[in-house]
Amino acid sequence: MKSHSLPNKNILDLLINTSKKNPNHVLFIENKKKITRKDFIEKILKIKGGLKKRGLKKGDKVLSLLENSYEEIILFFACITSGIIWIPLGSERKGVGLKYIIELTKPKIIFSRKLKPNNLPKNLFTKILRINKNLKNLEGDENFFNILDLSKLSCIIFTSGTTGPPKGVMVSQKMLLTSAYATGIAADINKNDKLLLWESLYHIGGLEIIVLALLENITIVIEKKFSSTNFWASVRKYKISKLHYLGGILDILLKLKKDKYDKKHNIKLGFGAGARPDVITKFKIRFNINLREVYGMTEASSFTTINFNQKKKSIGKALPWFDVKIKKKFKSDKVGEIIVNEKIDGLLTKGYYNDKNATKELLKRDGLHTGDIAKKDIEGNYFYVGRENDSVRVRGENISAWEIETTLNKKDFISESTILKTKAEIGENDIIALIIPKTNILNIKQIVNSCKKDLSKNYLPRYWCLMKKFPRTPSLRVDKKNINITKLKLYDRLVDKFTIVQKLR
Questions:
Q1: Which of 137, 162, 247, 330 has the fewest CB atoms inside 10 Å of its own CB, making it the most exposed?
Q2: Residue 419: what are its φ and ψ, rounded to 5°?
Q3: Rounded to 10 degrees, what is the CA torsion of 134, 140, 146, 150?
């Protein structure tokens, strides 16, 4: 682990200093276009002037509906170094979720390529600014001053909203820099490493990659979005050396047809979150890539723990600038909620934008309540168990949906599973297992009988259903909120017949 302290310079100073030291270093690649550090900082300064010319000032909010692109990266840096609050949502955001966020944040300008004025909520003084290639319509001469206070609000990153309306995490420059620094540690970043930016820039995971480029002498290859079809071609073409992943990405890549070139690449290490232990093993065997699991959340500057020692099933040990504890509800419990405190001021969010109730639930006297359940061994390694609100109460026992899913996913005939709960006729909850099978040969009864051997009585789901696919969040996690269970015929193993469940909770 790097021993020096967290970066304390503001982002614009970092941009200027690194461009002076190595002006011709290729910072970004987009398609065939190479952008040097010198070109990058010159463009940012021009856009800062253009923002001022458009009437924007310190404290104003802007909302981005752009896909991953050089233009969005430029706008992001130009805004946050000018004191303008950046709200990234991505090009696919629409409907009630978009309107809710616009009404909540009231941005002065929306950057978009396709949004129409009639899609905006009424009575809002919000302008839509159409973005053209290379931002030629947004250049100016008069420059904004630099923002020196790293603790000030820089951007608002909205959660996926799988358990209610989306919540806007308030993120400072200091949090962005810390997340980027931790990313460099997790990835064992070296001089001239190349990373593929596929994760959308409305996630902290995408933003920390581009901020990392300011701290290290690396090159970022910009992809509009993740594509399993193009992924390995891009990896080989650009000689990508470090792989950033989410668990869902690994599952998708493993489902690709095996190829004689699977091990022909330059990737030295993968780092990310949400990979099942069996997937980590399979990925190593097939692609010869070691994977390093991390744990964290946007609310706590992204990374909180890193599994440096490759401890099996572990999310690692706490980073030195965080105090991580497990809060148990009862003394007899083996697991508890992860509570995070900062050892350095400014690493935790100040809360959710315009949401006092959610903020109170997040930030309490004893620290930041993650809502994640884990356990800790005597060596200080943490082991993720699941979400607190994703647990199932069966016959007085709290059961982790994640634990059941992990057990099911190890089966050779199961491609992926997800666990839901429904109100039981007697007691608290009944468990529902939704399965994507690898083959059509086995029927549902055969699957249930096979899984009985690996799950205890309370952990064995009552209801079962075979699925073709699951709805996904933007980060490719299973979107349980958008699974309409009432339209599915579920196999009830207790009565050996198919039925329909009317209510989930």
A1: 330
A2: -115, 130
A3: -40
CA 72 vs CA 52, 171, 270, 321, 389: distances in Å: 17, 18, 26, 31, 35
Cβ-defined contacts of 387-394 (< 8 Å, 24+): 388/337, 389/163, 390/419, 390/480, 392/419, 392/421, 392/428, 392/429, 392/431, 393/428, 393/429, 394/424, 394/427, 394/428, 394/429, 394/430, 394/431, 394/458, 394/459
The model's pTM: 0.82
56-77: b (≥16 Cβ within 10 Å) or e = beeebbbbbbbbbbbbbbbbbb
**141-188 per-position pLDDT tens digit:** 877 777 778 999 999 999 765 455 789 999 999 999 999 999 999 999
Distance separating alpha carbons of residues 335 and 77, to the nearest angstrom: 41
H or E stretch at 101: helix 95-105
Integer Cα distance of 306 and 298 in angstroms: 15
Contact 49, 203 (CB under 8 A): no
**Number of Cβ within a 10 Å radius of residue 265:** 17
CB 74 within 8 A of CB 62: no
The label of the residue with tokens 């009944």 reads 430
Closest by CA to 54, choosing from 119, 110, 116, is 110
Place of tokens 């990392």: 212
DSSP 8-state secondary structure symbol assigned to residue 367: E
Domains along the sequence of the chain with CATH: 1-225 (3.40.50.12780), 290-394 (2.30.38.10), 395-499 (3.30.300.30)
Q: Kindly state the tokens that stand for 440.
A: 């059509």
- Give me 308's structure tokens: 């440096």
C-alpha span between 322 and 303 (Å, rounded): 10
User: Quick one: which of 214, 167, 218 has its CA closest to 356?
Assistant: 167
Q: How far is CA 72 from the centre of its chain?
A: 18
- Cβ neighbours of residue 219 under 8 Å, at least 6 residues apart? 25, 26, 27, 28, 29, 192, 193, 194, 195, 213
Strands 269-273 and 242-246: what pairing? parallel
Inter-residue long-range contacts of 31-37, CB under 8 Å, 24+ positions, other chains counted: 33/70, 35/70
DSSP assignment string, 296-307:
EEGGGTEEEEE-
